[in-house]
Design goal:
275 residues; 24% strand; homodimer; 6-stranded mixed sheet; alpha/beta; 3-stranded antiparallel sheet
Chain lengths: 275, 275
């Protein structure tokens, strides 16, 4: 079963660099931890055509899930649902379940401040205008409901862009939806740090260890420079059997450490010869 | 002239949420400040097909520039140039100019530490294997050269993923390449903060002001909640005439402030009636 997830983040503020996209990092980490694979992250602006194109492209790549963030609020440029509707060729309709969620929210707000009941203006009703066949998901932190839409084999989950709302809805309503698609697979990782050895010297060592323990993926993250190297080596694997997965990681760590140490000894010897 | 830029960030670490994508934010901000428009940001893993697909898709969307980050180093999973070559149907060849840059770097490193001359291993030579017709750009902070490739009307700029290297090359060699495409246009922005008024109340106010000053784009960024609102209103515009652009921004700020104050007075009056 394909367990590919694509993340689509909507917002001009992400494109102009006003806002750091912490949402996609948080989602990427959670999706991986749940045992699924984030295949791509796409950021587009607040534009119906752009959103629609991004959705159509993700459908063509045969994702199992598309998780979007942003563009569900009451302002003119909250256009995610319109973009999804366009991509799926569905109508936008007033969803009574979503409208009730929004009504209840505003009633709650007026009780809080003991103010006059808050009127359901067109901008507030807009948050209940969903693509045909949508299921609204309650937003306990904010106002705009999140939305789930099934389309053939694909599930689109539209989450708000405010991080606290996005995270709360993900944990309460999305985790349980994604988890079965991992089919019991989990993600395992470990990092080790190496100094004094250049990334270009570690490169052939990584090749060797990955050939010897092919289930483990090793990636080097240079933190220093090539001449004054500090390298984080990140080892990761997916697996259904935790003991086996950890065993493979340990085996790879041992081989890596051994080969790096041998490399250091060799170059120390060479330098001694020069001195 | 089309001045659209797409950013493509390559790296599994971005998809699994291990690394926060600060590169795309930094690039988005710089591109905007230079007067160009970032049209899309795409994040893909260290996979030749994924990189190639992302490039082909960006070409189809008729970008003027594609700026990629990551995947230029010496390890097996540094695959950006291979992905670009595949997308453009070009061969990967040893580039003598890039090879010289790399040779000089390793000579420099060996002088620094007074070590034995560093050997040009296959993993080091790999960093000089560029798509046919590439122009290498020196990397004064790190080792792997950046790469510029022209393809019909498109310019692809492949930058390293290490932020300090990426930023340094962008400022030294990319800024001057992009700037003429802004055709003298600059980006202007201002933010104002509003409390006590809900985002859903501000939404129709934004509509009004944007109708009155259509050159200014106004986006609300809720920082609090709908019941305890703290909203940043971000106003922005592109323009060739700085005075005119600032004038438009000021006009929009004045109208926004006036309408928000009126709204507050109205709701205060309503609440007094209840009390």
């Amino acid at each position: 079963m394909n367990n590919y997830v694509e993340i689509i983040c909507v917002g001009n503020e992400l494109l102009i660099g006003k806002t750091l996209n912490t949402n996609s990092q948080w989602l990427g980490k959670r999706i991986t931890t749940l045992g699924l694979t984030t295949h791509r992250i796409t950021v587009v602006g607040d534009d119906v055509n752009e959103i629609s194109c991004a959705i159509i492209e993700a459908i063509r790549r045969k994702s199992r899930f598309i998780i979007s963030t942003g563009g569900l609020g009451p302002t003119f440029d909250d256009k995610t649902l319109e973009g999804i509707a366009k991509a799926l060729k569905r109508k936008i309709l007033l969803n009574q379940e979503a409208l009730k969620m929004i009504k209840d929210k505003y009633f709650e707000y007026s009780q809080d401040g003991k103010k006059e009941p808050v009127e359901l203006t067109p901008h507030r009703i807009k948050m209940a205008m969903l693509p045909q066949g949508s299921k609204p998901i309650p937003n306990s932190v904010g106002t705009a409901p999140a939305v789930i839409i099934e389309h053939n084999n694909l599930i689109i989950i539209a989450l708000p862009g405010v991080p606290s709302e996005m995270k709360s809805i993900f944990e309460k309503s999305v985790t349980s939806l994604l988890k079965p698609f991992s089919e019991g697979t989990s993600f395992f990782e470990i990092s080790i740090n190496s100094t004094r050895v250049m990334e270009s010297e570690i490169a052939p060592i990584i090749d060797k260890v990955m050939k010897s323990v092919p289930s483990v993926y090793i990636k080097s993250h240079p933190k220093g420079t090539e001449s004054s190297p500090q390298i984080e080596l990140h080892l990761s694997t997916y697996g259904k059997d935790a003991d086996k997965a950890k065993d493979h990681l340990n085996k790879a760590v041992q081989q890596l450490t051994k080969l790096i140490k041998e490399n250091l000894k060799k170059s120390d010897l060479q330098n001694q010869k020069i001195d």
